[in-house]
Amino acid sequence: MEHGVVTFLTDYGIDGPTLARAVEERDLDAVFLCEHTHIPTSRQSAWHGGAELPRRYSHTFDPFVALAAMATVTERIALGTAVSLVLQHNPIGLAKTVASVDRLANGRFEFGVGPGWNREEMANHGIDPSARTARMLEHIAAMREIWENDEAEFHGRFVDFDPIWSWPKPASAPPILIGGEGPTVLDRVLEHGDAWLPRGSTPDEVEALAPRLAELRSRAGDAGREDITVTLFAGDVDKLVLEAAERAGIHRVLFLLPDGGTDVVLPYLDQYVAARV
Known about the structure:
277 residues; two-stranded antiparallel ribbon; Luciferase-like_dom
C-alpha cells in the first residue's frame, strides 16, 4: 500500500516546494492538493465538518500552479488534486493546464475530481448546482478528447466546440480519480474514471467501504478492467485507519496535513512515516 498526503496549501502555511521535497525525502509516495477558487461570505451551503468553515478554505493556492512548482523540485512522487472542482473551469483551458503540469512532472500528475459542495461558489462561476455532476462528467469527457486527439472536437450539453488544435499533450494519460461516496459513485468511476477517491477518516468508515470496494472490483472485472485502484482521502494520522485500509485492499492512503507552517507540518510527516504499515 502506498502512503501520501493531501492538504490545503495556503498563503500562511508551508510552501509547496518545501512540502514536496520533504515528502519525497521521507520516502512517501504522493502529495495531493485541494481546490477552492474562493469562498462566498454568505456561507449558506452546509459544510460536512460543522458550522464553522476553517480558514484554510478561503486561503488556498491555485493547485495547478503549486503542483507545477512542486514538479520542478521532485523526481518520484505522484502529484495530484483531491479534488479539482472541474465544473468551475473552462474545459479547454483546464485541459491545457493539466497537460502542462503533467509534462513538467514527467507524467506524475493524477487528476482527482469532484463536483463540489458549495452552491454559492458554483453560482459565482455561473454554474447551476442542480446539474453539477453532469457538467463535471462532460467536462472530463471533453478534456479527454483534447488530450487524445490532434484535432479535437466536442458537442455536448454544456461543452461545445468544433475541431481545435491544443498542445502540449500530457506526457501520459493522467489517471482520473473520481471523488465521492454517494450511491451512484461507482457508476461514475466505471464509466468515466480510472480510480476511486472516497473519504474515510476512522477505522469504522474504512471498514464500511469494504463491501463497495468488493463491488467495484467485481464490476470492473466483469467489464474487463483490472486496473481500477482506490485512493483513500483520510483524516488525521491513525495507524488503525492504515491497517483497515490495507485489509480492504486500498491502493493508497492520503492523510490530511494541517494547514500550518514548516514547524507544524514536518513533525506531522514524521508521525505519518512512523505510523505507516
